[in-house]
Amino acid sequence: MNIETIRTLPELVALEKEWNDLLAQSASHVPFLRHEYITAWWQGLGGGEWKHGELYIITARQEQGKLVGIAPLFLTENKQGGPALLMLGSIEISDYLDVIARPDDLPAFSEALLSYLADQQAPGAHVLDLYNLLESSPTIPALQSAAEKLGWNVAMEPLQHCPYILLPGDWEKYICGIDKKQRHEIRRKIRRAEEYFLPLKWYFVADGNRLDKDVDDFMDLMTFDPDKAKFLTPAMRDQMHAIVHAAYKAGWLQLAFIEVNGAKAAGYLNFDYMNHIWVYNSGLDFQYGELSPGWVLLAYLLQWANEQKRTSFDFMRGDEQYKYRFGAIDRRVMRLTARK
Questions:
Q1: Surface-to-core class of residue 281, CB atoms within 10 Å of its CB (0-12 exposed, 13-18 middle, 19+ buried)
Q2: Which residues contact 194 (CB under 8 A, 6 or more apart)?
Q3: Architecture of the domain defined by 164-314
Q4: Domain range list for the chain
Q5: 148's torsion region: left (phi>0), alpha (psi -120 to 50) or beta?
Q6: Any alpha helices (H) in the chain, and if so which ranges?
Q7: What are the backbone angles phi and psi of residue 312, rounded to the nearest 5°?
Q8: Same fold, 2-162+334-339 and 164-314
Q9: Domain spanning 2-162+334-339 has what CATH number?
Q10: In whole angstroms, what is the distance from residue 136 CA to residue 105 CA?
């Protein structure tokens, strides 16, 4: 493998087609690794999560020039205050991260990556601090094996829970497969909302000309939660706009609202990608609490996902109880640290 380092934004931009083509065949294929997402994230440094950073993307090509591996990294000070290489997208707003390589190429790429970094002189190049790897990621054993062979030390740390639902492709089959008490509760809340004395409707945002207004409305719903209000700094609001526009342009945005008498009562910002629904964030106007609009909208989205034959509904990070009440099963993301 021929190894190169991408250090500038124009070099990153130029990789778009090769990047996404390789991702389509990668052992780990999630929306947070799409070129358009990574580029939007980098230009906002995660909504101000990072004060500084330097691109340090490692690419691997076969002798004939074919791209076979990408480690989307940047140099910064990690949360412990030391120089390190982290994955672009780290940490707060990108639920799943990974390197990009075909399954058959992943072991060789992992070894080539560590060998290359061992020879680098940049401060932090000898520390890989990789957050939000799914516990099932084949990158974990590949890097562990490469580290053992090359004399790197590896540590693993479990991070957040990431509940998800495997969808049967049929709403009735899905709803009958969850806990009986919860099934009745969901149906009761849907019936109560649909019988409310004011008109209720739900819909997906489709008009790109109104997208900024809809995103602002969605973030306004988020701010009813004090923790989310604190999270939505001006820089983070700009970052959210950039990510939503990137997803919309690429065709995998799913922004949904439920309205009561024309007023937005709840919203879900999801990604409809690779036949999966990825639940990115949600917002709720608490004045409509008696209608449980968040639960009702979520039920409508699950019904739609089943009818459209999506194969999973991924709540991603966070172990809120409502996710399990809708039938989610658990898994976790991990932090892998490798030091030379």
A1: middle
A2: 200
A3: 3-Layer(aba) Sandwich (3.40)
A4: 2-162+334-339, 164-314
A5: alpha
A6: 9-14, 16-23, 35-48, 106-118, 139-150, 171-176, 180-194, 211-222, 226-231, 234-250, 293-307, 321-325
A7: -155, 160
A8: yes
A9: 3.40.630.30
A10: 17
The torsion angle over the Cα atoms of residues 234, 237, 241 and 243, rounded to 10 degrees, is: 120
Residue range 134-190, pLDDT digits in tens: 999 999 999 999 999 999 999 999 999 999 999 999 999 999 999 999 999 999 999
Q: Are 240 and 33 in contact (CB under 8 A)?
A: no
SS3 (DSSP) at 73: strand
Phi, psi of 296 (to 5 degrees): -65, -45
Residue 315 tokens read as 């709540």
Which one-letter amino acid corresponds to residue 151? G
b/e string for 62-81 if b means 16 or more Cβ within 10 A?
A: eeeeebbbbbbbbbbbbeee
pTM metric for this prediction: 0.95
Q: CA-to-CA distance for 84 and 75, rounded, in angstroms?
A: 6
